[in-house]
Amino acid sequence: MGEENKVTVHGMWLSPYVKRVELALKVKGIPFEYVEEDLSNKSPLLLKYNPVHKKVPVLVHNEKPVNESLVILEYIDETWKNGPRLLPEDPYERSKVRFWAAYIQHVMECMLKIFKAEDQEKACEEFYQKLGVLEDGMKNMFPEGSPVKSRNIGLLDILIVVAFGACKAQEEVFGVKFLDPNNTPLITSWLNSLLELPVVKESVPPHDKVVSFLRFFKESSSNAQA
């Protein structure tokens, strides 16, 4: 990688926000260096590049840091225009993708709350309600079903596979069924199609490693509440 176009990603291997950035770069065919951060002992570079939130991911392009995963994805798409576009060219279509991208982030945040919720049943109800809205919205946007086979991977594909790609590991540890093909047939089939793509397979963390981490997280949370 030439120093004049150097790309570095500071991340944490399981972070869905980091995985968004990694997958976008791979879809675009952009070489990058990955720096794993210990979030319990953040590096001076991470604190330098993201002094406000002090979080991952951070994309550093020619020594210029870009923060926040959705902002980074748009930066990638606008900077490297030769590869597949993550967002549509048409302004109205692009606005719809941005709207649903923000909503998918909201759904994922509701899902992550389940892992820490004292009232898990209530947290699940909120998640399922918002997931149903997402399913209906995607059916309206893609009336012919899963859009994977009809075009290149775009922003919504990246967000869907990152939000739900580890569902089986999460279900195994927390005993919650996040996706039910009877209730969310489009999202489920869409996710399954994405998980078969080579670029996605190489980006998804190993199932057993995710399960081990989530079990450790669950035990640590239980001990903290005891």
Automatic annotation (TrEMBL):
GO function term, MF aspect, one = glutathione transferase activity
Q: Which residues form the GST C-terminal domain?
A: 90-220
PROSITE patterns from the UniProt entry: GST_CTER (PS50405), GST_NTER (PS50404)
* Catalysed reactions, semicolon-separated: RX + glutathione = an S-substituted glutathione + a halide anion + H(+)
Name the GO terms of the biological process aspect: auxin-activated signaling pathway; glutathione metabolic process
Cellular compartments per GO CC: cytosol
Entry-linked InterPro entries: Glutathione-S-Trfase_C-like, Glutathione-S-Trfase_C_sf, Glutathione_S-Trfase, Glutathione_S-Trfase_N, GST_C_Tau, Omega/Tau-like, Thioredoxin-like_sf
| Residue ranges of every copy of the GST N-terminal domain listed in the record | 5-84
The entry's keywords: Auxin signaling pathway, Cytoplasm, Transferase
EC number(s) in its UniProt entry? 2.5.1.18
Function as written in the Swiss-Prot or TrEMBL entry:
Is involved in the conjugation of reduced glutathione to a wide number of exogenous and endogenous hydrophobic electrophiles.
The text of the family note is:
Belongs to the GST superfamily.
The protein depicted here goes by the name Glutathione S-transferase
The organism encoding this protein is Nicotiana attenuata
Taxonomy of origin reads: Eukaryota, Viridiplantae, Streptophyta, Embryophyta, Tracheophyta
